[in-house]
Amino acid sequence: MAYNRVQQTHCMDDAKRNENDWLETFSSPAQVEAALREKAKGSLGATPSKGERLKEYPKPQRGLDLHGMTSSEAERAAESFIRSATDQRLRTVKLITGKGLHSKDGRSVLRGAIDDLLLSLKRSGMVLEFKWERDGGGVVVYLY
C-alpha cells in the first residue's frame, strides 16, 4: 500500500513538474492564458482529425472513367491510375464507375469491385479515405 502511494505521489509530482516546465516556456501572462485556452480546446499540439485533414484536400485533380470495362479490367485500371497519381504526388482523384443504368439488373457492376479495391488500398496505406457520390456514379479518393 505504501509503495502505491509513493508511486502515485511520484507520478503526480512528475505531472506537476511537466506542467510547470510547460508554463515556464512562455514569457508573459497573456501568452500563458492564450496557451491554456488552446490547451482547453484540445488544439495545442493535437494531431488534426481525418475530417479536418480532408477539408484541406483539393477537389479531384484527375479522373478515370471506368465505363464499359469488366470488373477485373476496372480494378487493374483503377489501381494503376491510383499508383500513378501517388507517384505524381496528387492528393485527390475521382473514379467514375457509372450508376449501372445500362446493366441487366440496373445496378453498377463496378461499384463492388472498386469498393473492395479501395478498402484494400486504404489498409495498405496508399488511400487515406474515399467517399462515394450520393448518386453512386463515382467515388472521390483521397491519397496520402
Detailed description of the structure:
The structure is a single chain. The protein has five helices and four strands. It has two domains: 2-46; 51-143, Ribosomal Protein S8, Chain: A, domain 1, CATH 3.30.1370.110. Helix 4 runs parallel beside helix 5 (110-123). The chain is elongated, with a radius of gyration of 25 Å. A four-stranded mixed β-sheet has the order 1-2-4-3, covered by helices on one side. The N and C termini lie far apart (50 Å). The chain is α+β, with helices and mostly antiparallel strands and 144 residues long. Helix 4 links the parallel strand 1 (62-65) and strand 2 (92-96). It has helices at 2-24, 29-41, 50-55, 71-87, 110-123; strands at 62-65, 92-96, 127-132, 138-143.
> Sheet with the most strands?
4 strands, mixed
The number of helical runs is 5
Proportion of β residues?
Answer: 5-15%
> What is the string of helix and strand elements?
HHHEHEHEE
| Radius of gyration, CA atoms, in whole angstroms | 25 Å
CATH architecture of the largest domain: 2-Layer Sandwich
Number of domains: 2
Q: What would the CATH topology of the largest domain be?
A: Ribosomal Protein S8, Chain: A, domain 1
Uncertain segments of ≥5 residues (pLDDT<50)? 1-17
CATH class of the largest domain: Alpha Beta
Percent helix, as a range, is 40-55%
The assigned structural class equals: alpha+beta
Alpha carbon gap, first and last residue: 50 Å
The coarse overall form would be: elongated
Total beta strands: 4
Mean pLDDT: 81
